[in-house]
Amino acid sequence: MTKLAVIHLVLDEFIIEFLKGAFPQPKNLPYFQFPKSHDLENAIQILAKGVSEPITEKGLAIQFSVPLWKSEFEHFTLTKNSVQILKKRIKSLYGVVAHDFLAQKRNEGYEIKDCIYLFMAKYEITETDTNYERVKKDFDRWRNRQAVKKYKKNVRKKNAICPAV
Predict the structure, then answer these.
(1) Is residue 165 part of a domain?
(2) Is the dihedral of CA 70, 39, 139, 113 positive or negative?
(3) What is the count of structural domains for the chain?
């Protein structure tokens, strides 16, 4: 039988809502769980540090399967660097999912406002002005970065065809 342990990770309420919407949990489960062999589950297994005594922490309680090489420990925690790595991976996951969803809906002809509200509804994110602006600004920044990449690529092609004299 697989041994389970719990760590606590302090995240923004927005990101917690996104995670709970992206990975639906059974109603009676007191902890959050990523699917088995998911990238974030594997990252937690690697980054969790075994400790001899329980540490009381705040934040989202995440349950994970303890790998065999760490099975002698009963309690686990995350170092500051591990917390930063996990937060970065979770935000990256949010970015990929959000940008893909919003770009797809935008290409289907929805207005950006409707795309954002559809995204928030699908991932059960509370519809507040702050959350709406956060998603909108993030998507606008991503689109701008994509446009700059495309522009630089076209400039390089033109310079390769007709180099400066």
Answers:
(1) no
(2) negative
(3) 1
pLDDT digit string (tens) for 63-115?
888 887 787 888 888 889 999 999 999 999 999 999 999 999 999 999 999 99
Q: What is the spatial distance between Cα 3 and Cα 140, in angstroms, rounded to a whole number?
A: 43
Residue 82 placed within a domain = yes
DSSP class of residue 70 equals: G
Predicted TM-score (pTM) of this structure: 0.80
The residues pairing with 9 across neighbouring beta strands, listed in sequence order, are: 60
Segments forming the whole domain that contains residue 51: 4-160
The answer to whether residue 30 scores a pLDDT higher than 90 is no
Q: What is the DSSP letter of 8?
A: E
User: Which string of DSSP letters, residue by residue, matches 41-100?
Assistant: HHHHHHH-EEESS-----SEEEEEEPPGGGTT-SEEE--HHHHHHHHHHHHHHHHHHHHH
Lookup: tokens for 131: 């959350």
